[in-house]
Amino acid sequence: MNIVAMIPARYAATRFPAKLMQQLGNKTVIRHTYDNTIATGLFSDVIVVTDSEIIFNEITSNGGKAIMSKKNHESGSDRIAEAAVDLDVDIIVNVQGDEPFVQKDPLEKLLATFKEPSVQVASLMQELKDPTLIEDPNYVKVAVDRNMNSLFFSRSVIPYPRDKNISIPYYEHIGVYAFRKQALLNFTNWPMTPLEAAEKIECLRYLEYGVPLKMVLTQYMGVEIDTPEDLIKAAKLLK
Asked: Fewer CB within 10 Å, N- or C-terminus of the chain?
């Protein structure tokens, strides 16, 4: 299969504007993400898709590949779908630009799910144990069935522990997706759905149109840069 990684990179992030251009060690966040995605060796190509000339120049001036979006987009998946239309590709992996600690092993496991013909979309999750993070709306939670298919995604605490005596695992959804090309194109042709609009979680659109995500449990993936505090945590982890 021809497998390509695409990194949607929006400059004006709501919670932390210009977060992808923040310095993390000796590189910007977006360059860490790009370089670490290439370093996995899993992809025939790695492309940043951005609405920003600043990010475009940051990647291309350092020898990377980037494409400018032609339209405004509500989600990263919409952004890369525009660029993917004319690509000869079977599987597209959406690596969020704010995931500077991308690793090979989780992505390899993610791609392995597509050996099942029924899998159209897959994504990563990691276990959350800190009660503060479980309750933090910046951490998107996912509930899954016994076959590791997603049931729901939410910024709220799911499942809600009404019975405190039952031990329930909590999973954080990591914003790394893999799609069959047609599934991604279907997504971008569907109107935004009410749950997606309310929660601001793009993968809810798949669920509302009846497409479950195959979830892959992975070990700690590092820090996703959503807030200035996350950048401080990432700097400590980098050291």
From this structure: C
